[in-house]
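2024-03-11 09:14:02 DEBUG pipeline.ingest accepted 1 chain
2024-03-11 09:14:02 DEBUG pipeline.ingest length=202
2024-03-11 09:14:03 DEBUG pipeline.predict start
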Amino acid sequence: MTDIAIHPEKLRDAVAGALGDKLREIRLALGEVTVVVAAEDYLAAMEILRDAPQCRFEQLIDLCGVDYSTYGEVGTDGLRYAVVTHLLSLSLNQRLRVKVFCPDDDFPVIPSVTGIWSGANWFEREAFDLYGIVFDGHSDLRRILTDYGFIGHPFRKDFPLSGHVEMRYDAEQRRVVYEPVTIEPREITPRIIREDNYGGLH
């Protein structure tokens, strides 16, 4: 186990030194280091994190999208969509979280990192499918979890819980058919008891 793996402060300082002016923000919380880079620096920063001797993040272990539109600390004041990547250095036994925000809320685009880590392929397809984030340079960017005829991106905060259409198998037509949604959306709020000393509790 390396000294950096034992002391995340040293990892924070090593990453900050390697990224230099490409670093927008760096945080250490709960023993984990998170960096934020700008979209225009994303690819260059990722190559540095893979190749720099004090980083050597050879493996991408996760990549996901985030819709910040309903987050209290971001909401409408910041950019809506982010891509969050988790990197692992097997040789140095260290982990890092990288966050980049898409500069355009109406058409979220970010460069693909499949040229750096081929394992990003299906993760980026998932973020495209669920959030509508486009990964520029991806060789096969298509849906991976929803049907090819699916309308919208179901992990966006404004996507209706009931969806836009229903699908079922029609035995007479011997195929799947799409129909308007028949479920009426409703919100169920559980009963909350606010009595003092309820059940003998103080």
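2024-03-11 09:14:41 DEBUG pipeline.report DSSP finds four helices and nine strands in the chain.
2024-03-11 09:14:41 DEBUG pipeline.predict end
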